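USER:
Working in pairs, take the chain set out below, taking as long as you need, and write a paragraph about the fold.
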Amino acid sequence: MKAVVTNQWHDATLQDVDKPTVGPGECLIQLKLAGICGSDVHIYEGHHPTAKAPIIQGHEFVGTLVEAGGDLPDGLTVGDRVVVEPLISCGTCEACVAGNTHVCRSLKLLGIHEHGGFAEFVKVPTAKVIRVPDNVPDRLAVLTEPFAVGFHVCQRAELKNGQRALVIGAGPIGLIVAMVAAMSGAEVAISEVSDERLRQAENDFGFMTIDAKNDPISQANKITDGDGFDVVFEVSGTAPGLTFAMNACRVRGRIVQVGFFGKPIEVNLMPIILREQTLVGSRVYAPLHFKRTLPMLGRLLSEKRFDAEKLIAEVRPLGTVQQSIHDMIEGKVTGKILIDPKL
């Protein structure tokens, strides 16, 4: 089969590799679409702390279940369209025993530690396979994984109907977090430094926006009448982003750190102390939150409040993965790039 193999960092090439053979408790998925994520860029550049090459990257994908190594659970049959929850947990550490398998002490992911979806076929654990509802098309189903991140961070925020929420960073994940927060009943604003992303957030998705280059605190105070936001999602993964989050959050508000910092940062945490704010970590998603994301996507379609298709910049052939990653690094493409192995 054809697959894009990251042989070493900065080197991801299209190759002929052996088609995976499934064993007991495993399924073979024929890929329909895969998404390139910001974390794929970090892996490609060698910045992920635990990834090892060679690896077939790609943890966001939708496909067809074509083979099973053993019996399938009720509701799942060969030929179904499926998505795959890509987390691999040990099952024995304290976090796993407590039911928090997504923060497993030795957590691994498909596409990072095991071969993933930048290929014609991928082998996955049967227990991680979820049937896609008929009303969710492939181009939305492929976004299940990033929308699961949005679902989970809103749960971590304990977001309530009618609260004011600020999302710092208007890339694909930031826009997804904003959409999920709005679907939860929040009044949402987005802060961003890129003029192009600000225009997309406002024109394509209808969000209030804050230009982070132009006295963002004054803009935040105007939106909140000086009270601050009830919840702030820091998605940029930057020191200025976290500083703004603390200053824009209300007394006893919640800040959810979503973005990964590329390097150690130095920030003044006094606002958290003086305002008794709560800083919350959020990592990927609980398995139940991933599963519940698919019905949420169906509701997103039926409500017609947001057009998630506007997150997608382009659909490209499998052989363009490396060039697509470079286009993301260079800022040539700011939306989601999808990979179609059939092109």
Summary: The mean pLDDT is 97. Residues 65 and 77 are 8 Å apart (CA to CA).
